[in-house]
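Section 5: illustrative case.
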């Protein structure tokens, strides 16, 4: 099992997404053995929204405040071809998005390439077969299982590069000048066997 952790912290008007580390462990199976561990990384371990005033944060349709969208590049490098089936882990908010204390984080996986070829993404069913139509962009939520696809099939390869877009959103009443509360969340992306 390969995990990449991404932590989000909010200190007053500052949101920081921090890649806390890469946890690698061997997992013996017919597909992935201890000798073929894959490396999972992100290009930008810290995303800093900087200092913002409440009035600068746009209101969303649900009367919340958005800290804006940020893009990270997810890279998975394996020594041999692996089926690129993934799962997002994290605590769910009431609206099924990634929980962010009183708010939530929207996560979307965008345009990617597998071994230099453009790919699409699709949700996975219980049988590890893609469900629905593959798409260039896929909104994912905690516990969602999804796959890289080529020709409507789960694709195998050695090098995956994909963009992940995150948008942190807090209720309007949580973003006040007098607030000195820290908000945290974490998520991980797992390469499934």
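Designed sequence:
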């Amino acid at each position: 099992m390969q995990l990449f952790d991404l932590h989000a912290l909010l200190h007053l008007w500052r949101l920081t997404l921090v890649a806390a580390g890469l946890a690698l462990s061997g997992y013996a199976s017919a597909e992935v053995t201890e000798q073929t561990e894959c490396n999972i990384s992100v290009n930008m371990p810290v995303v800093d929204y900087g200092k913002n005033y409440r009035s600068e944060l746009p209101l969303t349709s649900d009367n919340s405040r958005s800290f804006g969208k940020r893009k990270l590049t997810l890279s998975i490098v394996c020594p041999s071809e692996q089926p690129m089936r993934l799962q997002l882990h994290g605590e769910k908010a009431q609206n099924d998005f990634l929980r962010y204390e009183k708010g939530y984080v929207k996560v979307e996986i965008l345009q990617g390439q597998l071994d230099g070829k453009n790919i699409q993404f699709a949700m996975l069913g219980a049988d590890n077969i893609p469900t629905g139509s593959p798409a260039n962009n896929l909104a994912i939520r905690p516990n969602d299982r999804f796959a890289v696809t080529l020709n409507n099939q789960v694709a195998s390869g050695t090098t995956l590069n994909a963009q992940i877009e995150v948008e942190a959103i807090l209720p309007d009443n949580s973003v006040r000048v007098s607030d000195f509360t820290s908000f945290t969340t974490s998520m991980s992306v797992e390469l499934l066997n």
